[in-house]
Design goal:
Structural class: mainly alpha
Oligomer: single chain
Number of domains: 1
Mean pLDDT: 88
Length: about 250
């Protein structure tokens, strides 16, 4: 009887340790993501300020970023960056991966800097708050739900690939109808990914918690932050296309 009580007590202590570790892990994920968001919007605001003069005209930097062939590099640099980062992270230390993530966040800021020239500041703030509330609700649901939503992954990734292809095609077509459809579907897909990625981060931690691999956990937190960061940024951009007021 004493052995049973002792085993149950030990199991309780282990469970508490895992729960505490999970909370710390999730806090690190959200903190890293938040710093990345801050870097992105600070970079976007700074670049947009340098891209336009006091008379509302594009400066040399603005013309280079938004009108010259360099705009294609600016547009696709984050996509290339994130694929390269995801492929190389296993070869990096956790500290290096965190620095690279912040560099990626800055690159994303340069890429989306034109929103401060296209949309009013008030609508950007408004859509950001709407996105933050929606993201928080979806992430909390993904963390707390007992439902296994891992099966959503393949469908949602296929949807992201479809969105990328449709967006690239519409760069040349310029169809408002396609742009509207892409924005609506994009919001739904990245809303689903927010819940899916949150549950995945939690599940992966619980599967590896007993291994005690601090380096793996550090990189897992950064990859989790990257995934949730991308979910937030994309949901924000699609909502901005739908709800934002243009200058």
């Amino acid at each position: 009887m004493q052995e049973y009580v002792g085993a149950r007590s030990t199991a309780g202590i282990d469970a508490k340790q895992v729960d505490a570790g999970l909370r710390a892990h999730m806090n690190k994920v959200y903190a890293t993501m938040s710093v990345g968001m801050l870097i992105t919007f600070a970079a976007a605001w700074a670049i947009s300020g340098l891209a336009m003069d006091a008379n509302g005209q594009l400066t040399g930097l603005g013309q280079a970023l938004y009108l010259s062939p360099l705009k294609w590099l600016v547009m696709f640099a984050p996509l290339i960056f994130v694929f390269g980062f995801s492929a190389a992270i296993n070869k990096m230390s956790a500290a290096t991966a965190q620095i690279v993530f912040y560099a990626f966040a800055a690159t994303m800021g340069v890429s989306i800097s034109s929103i401060f020239l296209v949309f009013t500041g008030f609508s950007i703030i408004q859509v950001f708050l709407v996105t933050a509330i929606a993201f928080a609700g979806l992430s909390i649901w993904g963390y707390t739900t007992k439902k296994d939503i891992s099966g959503w992954g393949a469908f949602l990734i296929m949807g992201v690939i479809g969105l990328i292809v449709a967006s690239i095609v519409n760069i040349f077509l310029g169809s408002p109808a396609i742009a509207f459809a892409v924005s609506v579907i994009g919001v739904l897909i990245f809303a689903g990914l927010t819940a899916y990625d949150t549950q995945k981060i939690k599940t992966e931690y619980l599967q590896h918690a007993h291994m005690g691999d601090a380096e793996w956990l550090g990189k897992a937190a950064i990859m989790g932050a990257l995934n949730l960061y991308l979910d937030f940024i994309n949901m924000f951009m699609f909502l901005l296309q739908l709800l934002g007021n243009r200058e």
